[in-house]
Amino acid sequence: MKKSIFTALFSLILLLFSMQAIGAEFKAGTAKGDITPPKSVPLWGQFHFRPSQGVESPLTANALALESAGEKGSDSVIFVSADLLQISEGLLKEVQKEVAKKDPGINVQKIVLNGTHTHTAPTLGKTYSAALPKDPNLMGYTEIVDFLAVKIADLVVAAWKNRAPAKINWGLDFASVAHSRRIVYSDGSAQMYGKTDRPDFEQFEAVEDQDVGTIFVWNAKDQLISVVINVSCPSQVVEGRNMVNADYWHCVRNRLYKRFGKDLTVLGWCGAAGDLCPRTLYQQKAVNRMMKLRGLEPMEEIARKLDRVVASAYDVLKDRKITDVPLIHEVKEIELPMRIVSDEEYKNCLAVYKDIEKKIKDNPSKSPAEIAFMGLGWNKSVCDRYEAQKKNPHPMFKTRIHVLRLGNTAICTNQFELYTDFGIQMKAKSPAEQTFVVQLVGNGTYLPTAKAVRGGSYSAIIQSNPVGPEGGQVLVDRTLDLINKIWTDQKAEGKEVKK
Description:
The chain is of the alpha+beta class. Helix content is 36%, strand content 26%. The strands form 6 sheets. It has an 8-stranded mixed sheet. Helix 8 (343-362) crosses helix 10 (375-391) and helix 11 packs parallel to helix 13 (469-489).
């Protein structure tokens, strides 16, 4: 009898030890699905009205739920990366509402939903959709949001339900994917997508961030179940087409499916890249020649580079899996000083707004969207801000940030198309071993640097910037304050399990 009790106790100890060895305190679950609209949609990302005329590649959403329990309690996060331009507040709220209905046990504040910034996905701009033509074959704002919210909520719930003991590791490498898209000329002016073969070309405005951060997640059987790729580059290779397209992320996923299997979830995180793009503005002939020699289109060329980086990091990390992973997830509402509208900026925007109004009135057979899809609201918002300034000369912009500690990494989010210099500040000053910056976790508007505002041009003008350089620095400082607080509060490190 004593022997059997001893045997049972010994077996229990071995079981507990083996559970710890495979990361019993750290769990992960994944899910992915198609979010391609079933009908034509107004595509978002250009100023003119573009109803989609078909599907070139499906839009997908990939979810990764993480949970860690330790001596100081447990915490969690559910990351969802979606092939959308950005994430409107309306969509996020509907996703949270749907998740709460489907599984009340999920803390919806822990959902981090980001867009990959493809310009060939359905609009989530409520203002623009209100002026769409009346067409039963064209999805409007409410129909689009309702469709996406259900699809994404299902994936959130499935990923959370699929949680099981898991292992993780993260890596960093570099790839020439993102390129500066703002050109500075000798008179100090700047231009997005400006010509570089002009005699007065002087320089590119910003440094290019070639970091490619990766996170790998394995199940207890050492099967790779998820890869996160953080690259500071919007998915805008085919941004002007009239077709639904996930852009280069579709090609990246297909390459990784061939390498790791089709069950893999692949999350695309766009780093700070408000002034970057996926194509070089110089040496174009040489770049095009090399792609032609390789037999690749531009999206496949980017996929080739990212696949190579992911494979290289995987080879280093596959035998260094980490368990017992600290996870702290803070969600904060912060306020940023808004960019002040000058008298001249107000007058210019008002004139454009009134001109568009007149064109709409003079063309009753057309919908407002067909005349000025984005231009009307783009300029009216500046006029509204100017009027609001009369009552409050120091307006503030409320925004939400997520800051996480995952093992020895920091993950910080923002809603903007954040200029690269701000993202590099966060990474350079962070106490973490590695820092991931994820933009477009919300309704993205450009947030420029002071030198960009001085240079002018689209993306650094008042219509593009509810928040200006001063607010960008506050965003950086508040994010770093929170990262530093988390690192001070908990200094535990994950344990590597080496084969």
